[in-house]
Each structure stands twice: as C-alpha cells, then as structure tokens.
Amino acid sequence: MDQSWTECTLPVPAEALDLVSDMLYTVGCIGINVEERELDTFTVPDPDAGAPAVYQIKAYFSAGIPVESLLNEICQNLQPEIPGLLPEHITVGGIQQEDWAEGWKQHFSTLRFGSRLTVRPTWEEEDDASDAVVTLDPGMAFGTGSHETTRLCLQTLADQYEKTPVPESVLDVGTGSGILAIAAAKLGATAVVGCEIDVDACRVAEENVILNRVVGQVEVTSRFLEEIDGSFDLVIANILAEENVRLADRLVARIAEGGTLILSGILKEKESFVCEGFSAFGLAGPEIRYENEWCCISYVKDRGA
C-alpha cells in the first residue's frame, strides 16, 4: 500500500541551513530536500555552486500529523534561526512514497570503500571487483552512502576490516536504511545489531537485510540503546553530534575491551563539543577523518578501561 507524506516548503537563509535542518529532525522530520538536491541525512550548501542567500527547504513528515499543529511547532522551533517565520510562510503539499523512492535514482550510484567494500543501488549492475557488495534500495530511510557522514562511516568501517583481528560483533545505533550494519556483515562480522527507533526505517532496513542475504548475521531492532544487552567489538553511531554526546555513557558501555567506537553525523564546528563529551571515559584517541563540512571521530576502548 502506498504511503503519503506531508511536504513542508520553507525559505531558509544559507548560513542557517545546518542548524535549521537539525531542528527540523527534532520535530519529527524524516527527510529533507534542498533546492531539488536530495540528501540522505543532513543538508549542507555547496560552496562551489554560487549558493544563493536563501534556500527553499522541503521537509517531509508523516501525513498523520495534523497540519496546523505541525506548522505551529515548526515555527516555534525555528524562530531563533528564522525570526518572523509564520505558518503562512510555509507551503504544504503531499508526496507518495513511490515518488520519494524514485528521486534517489538521481543522487545515488555505485560507491567503493577500501579494497573490498562496494555499495550499489538495486538499479545498477553488480561489479565483480569487490567481494563485499551492499545492494541498497533506501526507500524512505536515511543512508545511501551519498552523504559525507555515511561515506566517512563506510570508509572508517572498511578500514577496520583491513586489520586483524576483525570486529566480529557490531552495534549500529540509528541504523536507518541498515547500510552500515549490512556493510559490516558483508565485510565479515558474524553478529550485527542495527537499532532504530523509527518504525518505517526499521521496515526498510529489514527489507535491505533480506535483499543482501544477511538475515542470519544482522538483527534490526526498535529497542532503545539502553535496552540492548552485551558488548560489541565495534559500535557505530551516525547520528547528530548532540545525540552522540547525550548517549555517550551508553555508547561507551557497549564497547568491548579493545573495541572501537565510530561517531559521525558531526559538523566540523561540533568536533570539539563531541571530543569534550567523550573525554572522561578513558578512551584511546580520537582519530578524526574529514570530508567537506563533516567529520568522523573514532576511539578505542583499551583493555581494562
């Protein structure tokens, strides 16, 4: 059955794009399109494209939310960054799930990470050059590898499997489309848990797990992080900087001795904020990788820490 979504279009000053995008996710947004450029998790203006002073953001919400209350909540939360924003400044429309999914084909093509990992969309032919191939149909969930935050995670993840011993157990927090969890399984992890509180994302991730034939290796769950037992050789959290810090103690508690923590979804300007948030846990590192406006921060939990 086709599912409908509410599309809210609003003008946003270029310098406020990052903060406004983050704020929209906190009020229930499940996807963003900026100036007809679809992004998988976050939005960043292109510094080389002669960016305008104001962008039109299209934010997508579940159609079940009453429009009047949704617009009021958006305006209330965005007032600090867009003074004077009123409900009448926001254009409301609808979109069908198949229309959204079709849009990914314009922005998602085969990508390669390290010596073994390839991520490809379902509509492209498989490349025999890699032995760890993730086939992805993202649908409404975040994560195709087309955004810097996901690419940073995929490259860092691929690097973990160039070493010995490789991580056998992996926890992917905020799994979205399941791309990182599936990639870990394809690279050699035997027990992977992808946790995601959004039920639609869970459904998409489960479909992608089946598509990639890693059902026995990857479990997708809607349980909260604190409800997941055990420790893992590798913990990944590709979420907002603030959420990484808020969940810091729970993330660290899930790392096995000698295990690695990968944090992403972090703007460069939030790097010190995140590092400070993890400074009290006695982790080795950080190692930091950058791409455009984003960074990925890795730590290792020393044995006995």
Structure summarized in a few sentences:
This protein is an alpha/beta fold. The chain has helices spanning about 15-25, 65-80, 95-105, 150-160, 180-185, 200-210, 240-245, 250-255, 270-275; strands spanning about 5-15, 30-35, 35-40, 55-60, 90-95, 110-115, 115-120, 130-135, 170-175, 190-195, 220, 230-240, 255-265, 285-290, 295-300. The model is unreliable at about 35-50 (pLDDT under 50).
Which SSEs are present, and which pair or pack?
Elements lengths: L3 E10 L3 H10 L4 E4 L2 E2 L15 E9 L4 H12 L12 E6 H7 L7 E3 L3 E5 L10 E5 L11 H13 L8 E5 L5 H9 L3 E5 L3 H13 L6 E4 L10 E7 L2 H6 L1 H6 L1 E13 L3 H7 L6 E8 L2 E7 L5
Parallel strand pairs: 7-8, 9-10, 9-12, 10-11, 12-13
Antiparallel strand pairs: 1-4, 1-5, 2-3, 2-4, 6-7, 13-15, 14-15
Q: Report the β-strand fraction as a percent range.
A: 25-35%
The largest beta-sheet arranges its strands as: 11-10-9-12-13-15-14
CATH A-level architecture of the largest domain: 3-Layer(aba) Sandwich
- Quaternary structure annotation: single chain
Could you please say which CATH topology of the largest domain applies here?
A: Rossmann fold
Residues in helices, as a percent range: 25-40%
CATH fourth-tier homologous superfamily of the largest domain: Vaccinia Virus protein VP39
- End-to-end C-alpha gap: 50 Å
**CATH uppermost class of the largest domain:** Alpha Beta
- Number of domain modules: 2
Q: How many beta-strand elements? A: 15
Count, helices: 9
Q: Unreliable stretches, pLDDT < 50, 5 or more residues?
A: 36-49
Rg, alpha carbons: 19 Å
